[in-house]
């Protein structure tokens, strides 16, 4: 009898996992009056979020078809209805980098040009504002603001009580004048995992910001490329269980920044940190960035040599390895970048 | 009595039309069901272009308020109205020479068109404003690039070889190879294409003066009072032959090639009062695709300065709404400053 009950519970659990609800979104051809299937996709992420509470109490995937998604107002990432706070909300590309016929031209692009908001107590422009726990973002590309003087944050979480944010296989491409990104990902709190991402030309790539009790836990950045940032990785408050592994940081002004009061001894492993103006930097009490030499645990770091990334060619095709190290050159064997499996 | 009232109503409607000389667009407060008056602007440039296109009004001037304008598909600039002696004008409500202008007041035009929406001769491309009429002015707008960087994106395009007279004035084109790709700022066939007081910053090609119908020599094209910086292909590209081409009072710096001209174009161009500096190659003739012969061709130079480093005003620290008013212009003391090239017709 007990076995039977266990079996039934297991069966129910499997069904639950298997029946995660999918909603499809196509900015070019979708309509917000559609049902949200792949044949009848919605147009906007906001409409998909509106529907979540009413269609399912299970984990939900919002699946984006290729296209340019213009974000003119901050998208608050939380379902409008009842959504159990143990369930996962995933926003992901229909085609993911490891799919056979994938190329960068199939990445949905989220163009953040939102009206100003006041996240983190100062005026800025946020694309996706994460306001729940258990969120995944997969296979998306983010570009920045056309007003270059606005602080633009494509992804922000300004409430440290939320945990478990996974950002994988995403690309952030900014430029000082044409498409400004102040910080690619800026998050308070614990358990933000950044895996297999590429940051190119963002003023800051990632800021692991504040905690609500003095210490953040289990934040990770791994298998990621950061190229041409002023500050690549910035850890403000103290951390425990921080993972930094298999990353490439190059052509940045400051590779690793921590706040002056943060006494955590960080461990950096199996990474290439080369061709940056400063390796370790402290943000001092006045907020000034000064080159420093605090203790850090290093394991298998390469600090010499130079990285060259595959550049774009205008035309009908699009090189899969765009903004990844040129094959056969430094970094190409590390596995950092969008692909979980070698291309 | 009833008839009289009706007549009076009709008269007042006509008067209202006659009084409102422009269709206003505002992406913050506008609505596409509005008439497009200053008080009740329309929301989209597409709707405003429809109003200009139709014959049920006499409007041919579009005034665009500050804000970001997203074009999901190319917008045709044209009209069915009789246009003798008149122009279609698409311009910012606040222009660079107005006293209350700041860079943030420039309407920003962004294309989110489907990639490869328009089929060209041998490749797909994306365009924002499609100029389908003669006698058109586009003035005071800002165009960033397109988000998929392998795309041939033209913010302003004119594909009809029989058209003439397109003035692009006081417009700012800002691109980046990866984040905001701009293949050609103004891509235009035909005659009378003038870019005046424009800035092309990090665009792949600023203006391509393309072809004419039947291999005829194009007339009256040119670039004046403009700054072209950081082009990754050409500062300027003249495809087929020209007569009366004007290239005056321009700054061209830090480009891969200053001037590209097709091999079968016999025109000897003249340039005057310019600062042309720090470009990797001065001339180039395309051999096939992107391969260039950089040996050079004849060009007549009058008062051309080639020495010195151009200094443009950077955006400065990001501190919210305080871009310098001369952002991306030559700063005082920089060579080329005295030319007055850039967005302002009278110096700020």
Describe the structure concisely.
The complex is a heterodimer of chains A (343) and B (348). Chain A is mostly beta strands and 343 residues long.
Can you put this structure into words, describing what you see?
- The complex is a heterodimer of chains A (343) and B (348).
- Chain A is mainly β and 343 residues long.
- Helices cover 8% and strands 35% of the residues of chain A.
- Chain A has helices spanning 2-18, 45-55, and strands at residues 21-25, 60-64, 68-71, 75-77, 89-93, 109-112, 125-130, 135-138, 141-143, 152-157, 165-168, 171-173, 183-187, 192-195, 198-200, 204-208, 215-217, 220-222, 225-227, 231-235, 238-240, 243-245, 248-250, 254-259, 267-274, 278-283, 289-291, 297-302.
- Chain A has a 17-stranded parallel sheet that branches. In chain A, strands 4-7-10-13-16-20-24-26-27 form a 9-stranded mixed sheet. In chain A, strands 17-21 form a two-stranded parallel sheet.
- The termini of chain A are far apart.
- Chain B is mainly beta and 348 residues long.
- Chain B has a single domain, classed as Single-stranded right-handed beta-helix, Pectin lyase-like (Pectate Lyase C-like, 3 Solenoid), CATH 2.160.20.10.
- In chain B, 8% of the residues lie in helices and 34% in strands.
- Chain B has helices at 2-19, 45-53, and strands spanning 23-25, 61-64, 68-71, 75-77, 88-92, 108-111, 118-119, 124-131, 136-139, 142-144, 153-158, 166-169, 172-174, 184-188, 193-196, 199-201, 205-209, 218-219, 222-224, 227-229, 234-238, 242-243, 246-248, 251-253, 257-261, 269-277, 281-286, 292-293, 299-305.
- In chain B, strand 1 (23-25), helix 2 (45-53) and strand 2 form a beta-alpha-beta unit.
- The model of chain B is unreliable at 1-19 (pLDDT under 50).
- The interface between A and B is large, with 45 and 43 residues.
